[in-house]
Amino acid sequence: MRWSEVDFDKKIWTVPAARMKAAREHRVPLSPRAVVILRKLEKLGEFVFPGQARNKPLSNKSMEMVLRRMKIENATVHGFRSSFRDWAGNVSSTPREVVETALAHVIGDKAEQAYRRGDALEKRRTLMEAWAGYCEPKIGAEVVHISKR
Q1: First-to-last CA distance in the chain?
Q2: For every one of its 149 residues, what pLDDT tens digit does the chain have, with 9 covering 90 and above?
Q3: In a domain, 148, yes or no
Q4: Dist. CA 95–CA 92, nearest whole Å
Q5: pTM of the entire predicted model
Q6: N or C terminus of the chain with fewer C-beta within 10 Å?
Q7: Residues 102, 119: Cα–Cα separation, whole Å
Q8: Is 144 within the bounds of a domain?
Q9: Domain carrying residue 65
Q10: 28: nearest Cα among 9, 7, 13
């Protein structure tokens, strides 16, 4: 993620096509909470999450290494995306195609793809705000540690 890709006024992060698996630009609506977090970060260069090497992004293995250091064996980095998908499908009432678009998945056959030109940005914004609310710790909430059994 590069600072130049974030539009704070519109609350959108635009990922260029060159960095997307489907080779299509992907707009990510940023929840108010995400914007607050981003605004608090110190700008140390072009990357929002800089790596250890000068002018390089955080490694794509960084999250995996965090899980290893925390000795979390029953989770994967891709599992974070899967958790969002499960929540969206099981808890939210958001239509499947909006959820899949949020995940930058190509949906439908060639004919549907040809006719579906929009990216449901405002519907995805509502979805991301709900997800942010779900992830945000609640006041007075109790954190329950799950044993390895």
Answers
A1: 37
A2: 999 999 999 999 999 999 998 888 999 999 999 999 999 999 989 999 998 888 888 888 998 998 999 998 888 988 889 999 999 999 999 999 999 999 988 887 788 777 777 889 999 999 999 999 999 877 766 666 665 54
A3: no
A4: 9
A5: 0.82
A6: C
A7: 9
A8: no
A9: 3-135
A10: 13
